[in-house]
Amino acid sequence: MTCRWGVIGPGNIAQTFADALKVLPQGELYAVASRNTERGQAFADKNGASVLHSSYQALVDDPMVDVVYIATPHSHHYPVARQVLAAGKHLLLEKPLTVNASQTCELVALSEQHKCVFQEALWSRFMPCFATVKAWIQQGRIGQLKYITSQIGFKFSGDATHRLLNPALAGGSLLDLGVYSVSISQYLLEENPVQVSAITTPAGAPVDHNTFVTMQYASGAVSQFVSTINAQCSNVMTIHGSKGFIHIPGRFWEGLGCSLFVDDECIEAQSFTHRANGFEYQIEATMQLIAEQESSDKRMSHTDSVGVMDTLDSIRNTLGLKYDNDIETL
Fold first, then answer.
1. Which of 54, 70, 99, 215 has the fewest CB atoms in 10 Å of its CB?
2. Mind listing the pLDDT tens digit for each residue in 28-57?
3. For the chain, which domains are there?
4. How many CB atoms lie within 10 A of CB 166?
5. Distance between CA 195 and CA 218 in Å, rounded?
6. At 267, is the secondary structure helix, strand, or coil?
7. What is d(CA 103, CA 309) in angstroms, rounded to the nearest whole number?
8. Angstrom distance (rounded) from CA 253 to CA 127
9. pLDDT averaged over every residue in the chain
10. Which InterPro entries does this UniProt record tie to the protein (predicted)?
11. First to last CA, the chain
12. What does each C-alpha distance from 266 to 132, 138, 259, 263 come to in angstroms?
C-alpha cells in the first residue's frame, strides 16, 4: 500500500524531504499546502505532487492524505501540529518539535488520544552511522563513556529580519542547532541530564548567538557543546571513554562516517552513503510505524522528545532566554 504524504511549508527543508521520499517506492508526495500560492505551485510541480492546497486546514481535511510532514519554522510547529493530530492524521514533525516541553507534552497527549503516529524528525537518530556508534559504546569498545564534546554552527551573514535573529520566531543557535547535540547525547547515553550550566555571548542579545553548554548525567558522564550562528567551527563530535574514543567528523549530524580509536590508534573506521540525503531513514521509519500501528520509533520515542525539550528548557532558563509570549503559550 502506498503512503500518501502531505507537506506543510514548502521551503528548503521540505525540498530535502521530497528528494528523500523519491527513493522510497512505498511513499508518494500527494499534496502540498502553502499560504504562498506561487511558491506552493512551484514546489508541487517540481516534485510531482497532485494537489496544492492554499491553507493548512484544507490539507489536513483532505481524506486522501495519510500522513503529514511539517517543515514550517519551529516557532509555529505547535499550532499546525495540533490541527494535524486533532484531525487524526499521522505526523512527522521537523525538529525541534516545539519551543518548549509543555507544548511537546500536549502534542504527545493529543496523538495518543487520536491514536496517531507522531514522530520527531531528528534525522540523525535514524542513521546507520549513529547506530554503529551506539553499538561500539554498548560493546564496551571505548570502555566506560566519560564525556561527549561537539561543536555545531556557522557564521550567519543574513540581516536582522531573518528567523535566526528573530525572537518572535524562536531564533538563535540553541533550538536550531544545539538540539542536535542535546538529542544525540541523549540517544548515546540513554539518559537526560540532571544538571545543566550554560553561558551565551554576546550577553543581552535578543537571541543566543554563541552558546556554551555543559550537561551532567546521573551516570557520571558529561556532554559539552557549543552552538553558534556567529563563528566558523569544526562541526565535529567526539565520544570519549576510559579506553578509547569515537570521532564523528565535520557536520557530524549528517552521519557520513565514524572512527574508533584505542590507545590513540584508529582500529576501525566506517563510512556511509545515503540513498538520497539522509532524510530517507526517518521517512521510512514513519511509514513502518503506520503499517505496524505503533506510535513512535524507539530510536526517538515520545519520552525522548519530551526529555530533549525539558533539557532545552533548562538551558534556556539558565541563560534567561525567552521568546515571545504568543509562541510560548499553549
1. 54
2. 999 999 999 999 999 999 999 999 999 999
3. 3-124+278-296 (3.40.50.720), 128-273 (3.30.360.10)
4. 18
5. 9
6. strand
7. 9
8. 9
9. 97
10. Gfo/Idh/MocA-like_OxRdtase_N, Gfo/Idh/MocA_domain, GFO_IDH_MocA-like_dom, NAD(P)-bd_dom_sf
11. 36
12. 15, 18, 7, 8
pLDDT band of residue 161 (cuts 50, 70, 90) is: confident
User: Given the C-alpha cell 512527522, which residue does it identify?
Assistant: 92
d(CA 35, CA 97): 21
Instruction: Quote the CA–CA distance of 77 and 71 in Å, as a whole number.
Output: 8
Q: How far apart are CA 123 and CA 94, in angstroms?
A: 9
Rounded CA-CA distance 330/286 in Å is 26
The beta strands (E) that lie in 38-156 are given as 51-53, 67-70, 90-94, 118-121, 145-153
Determine the Cα–Cα distance for residues 175 and 98; give it in Å rounded to an integer. 9
In this structure, what DSSP letter does residue 2 have?
Answer: P
Spatial distance between the Cα atoms of 281 and 258, rounded to a whole number of angstroms: 18
Q: Which amino acid is at 297?
A: D
Q: What is the pLDDT of residues 96-153, one digit of tens each?
A: 999 999 999 999 999 999 999 999 999 999 999 999 999 999 999 999 999 999 999 9
pLDDT classification of 281: cutoffs 50, 70, 90 = very high
Task: Report CA-CA distances (Å) from 9 to 20, 32, 68, 174, 180.
Answer: 16, 8, 11, 22, 22
For strands 90-94 and 257-262, give the pairing: unpaired
Q: What are the grid coordinates assigned to 51, written together?
A: 494537489
CB atoms closer than 10 angstroms to residue 230:
17
Q: Confirm if 51 and 62 have CB atoms less than 8 A apart.
A: yes
Q: Distance (Å, rounded) from C-alpha 205 to C-alpha 198?
A: 15
Specify the length of the chain in residues.
330
